[in-house]
């Protein structure tokens, strides 16, 4: 028979009647394997055997602990967004690393436990085999299955390894629960629960009400905190600006693109946003409404803004309307004006949520635009 040694191959009826030990012996003969050494690593019940079992169980317990910590952190750790200047921002910034570390402990513990089990529990074997080519036949599959089962039997996993079986069950159950918790948790948590104060609505562009009742509006600033004035930009230019507050340059939802269109450029504005611009200056969120990448490749002649991640294009001459790619809604426009010192400030926060459009499914009616200066 091709690929086998000269050992006699039993008939299908004889195969069914053979015991596991007989199938193991047959498999080695058929594959031309010479077992130089084969047997249990330690005497069953000996101190060395117990140490080996404990060394494997500790990894499965570590995996279980990691999975439990992941579930606890996912549910109870304060994951709500905190701006960089918030005293509790450090808790928010640790949320993702904690999930990563605990998930790594769970997956790594399980993997190391399986490796340790193969090295310290499964039978010790030194075999010499003549390699051959060809697909596995029925006899090969049966004998291989018997060899695997025999390894489990001789290692004691079937009968006397209660500690390993129990901790392996805990680790496997913990990983399964860990995988299910984010899915279930995402269905329970409501990002809009605080209505107008929900984190998805509020950015660092929101004006601050001072103790005396006055309203302090946020300046548009460069990355180094320098405030921006109209004379800082030439016609046809573009620049990235940030909220002029502590931590403004680090807030992921607050980068804004400030444009100065040429005076003869025909501009369409979205209905209800006629006063959001200041002269020829327009400000739009830099966060793409597809999956949140930075949209910053500007073609001045056509007024197109390209997001490099998935090639969504927005027509800045028509309210930042998406004209190509997967994005389905315009970039949110930031209302801008000048303060009494001549610096740009945000008239208010964005009037719609920044970022991926799936947060806003069903929350806004169809939008329209019309030429700047005309009535909607």
Quick recap of the structure?
This protein is 33% helix and 16% strand. The chain has 376 residues and is α+β, with helices and mostly antiparallel strands.
Shape: elongated
Q: Helicity range of the residues?
A: 25-40%
Largest sheet: 4 strands, antiparallel
What integer value in Å does the Rg equal? 33 Å
What is the third-level CATH name, the topology of the largest domain?
Rieske Iron-sulfur Protein
Q: Look at the structure and name the CATH superfamily of the largest domain.
A: Rieske [2Fe-2S] iron-sulphur domain
Number of domains: 2
The termini sit apart by 85 Å
User: Total helix count?
Assistant: 6
Tell me the strand percentage band: 15-25%
Explain what you see:
- This protein is of the alpha+beta class.
- 33% of the residues lie in helices and 16% in strands.
- The protein has two domains: 12-188, no CATH class; 198-376, Rieske [2Fe-2S] iron-sulphur domain (Rieske Iron-sulfur Protein).
- The protein contains six helices and 16 strands.
- The strands form six sheets. A four-stranded antiparallel β-sheet has the order 5-6-7-9, with no helix packed on it.
- Helix 3 packs antiparallel against helix 4.
- The N and C termini lie far apart (85 Å).
- The mean pLDDT is 83.
Question: Keywords for this structure?
Answer:
376 residues, alpha+beta, Rieske Iron-sulfur Protein, 2 domains, 4-stranded antiparallel sheet, 6 helices, 33% helix
């Amino acid at each position: 028979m091709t690929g086998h040694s000269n050992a006699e191959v039993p008939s299908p009826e004889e195969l069914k009647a053979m015991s596991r030990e007989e199938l193991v012996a047959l498999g080695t003969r058929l594959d031309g394997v010479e077992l130089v050494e084969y047997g249990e690593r330690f005497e069953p019940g000996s101190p060395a055997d117990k140490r080996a079992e404990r060394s494997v169980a500790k990894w499965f317990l570590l995996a279980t602990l990691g999975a439990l910590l992941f579930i606890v952190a996912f549910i109870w750790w304060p994951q709500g967004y905190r701006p960089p200047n918030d005293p509790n921002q450090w808790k928010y910034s640790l949320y993702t690393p904690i999930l990563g570390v605990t998930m790594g402990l769970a997956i790594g513990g399980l993997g190391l436990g399986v490796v340790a089990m193969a090295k310290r529990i499964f039978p010790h074997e030194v075999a010499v085999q003549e390699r051959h080519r060809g697909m596995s036949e029925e006899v090969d599959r049966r004998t291989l299955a018997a060899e695997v089962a025999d390894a489990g039997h001789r290692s004691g996993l079937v009968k006397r390894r209660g500690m390993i079986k129990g901790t392996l069950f805990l680790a496997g159950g913990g990983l399964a629960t860990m995988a299910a918790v984010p899915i279930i948790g995402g269905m329970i948590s409501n990002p809009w629960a605080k209505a107008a104060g929900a984190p998805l609505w509020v950015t660092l562009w929101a004006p601050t009400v001072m103790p005396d009742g006055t309203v302090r509006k946020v300046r548009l600033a460069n990355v180094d905190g320098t405030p921006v004035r109209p004379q800082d930009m030439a016609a046809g230019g573009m620049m990235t600006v940030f909220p002029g507050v502590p931590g403004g340059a680090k807030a992921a939802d607050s980068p804004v693109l400030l444009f100065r269109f040429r005076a003869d450029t025909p501009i369409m504005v979205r209905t209800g946003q006629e006063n959001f611009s200041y002269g020829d200056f327009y400000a739009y969120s830099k966060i793409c409404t597809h999956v949140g990448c930075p949209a910053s490749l500007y073609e001045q002649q056509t007024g197109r803004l390209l997001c490099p991640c998935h090639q969504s294009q927005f027509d800045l001459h028509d309210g930042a309307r998406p004209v190509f790619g997967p994005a389905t809604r315009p970039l949110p426009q930031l209302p801008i004006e000048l303060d009494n010192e001549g610096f740009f400030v945000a008239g208010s926060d964005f009037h719609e949520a920044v970022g991926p459009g799936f947060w806003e499914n069903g929350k806004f009616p169809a939008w329209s635009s019309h030429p700047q200066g005309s009535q909607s």
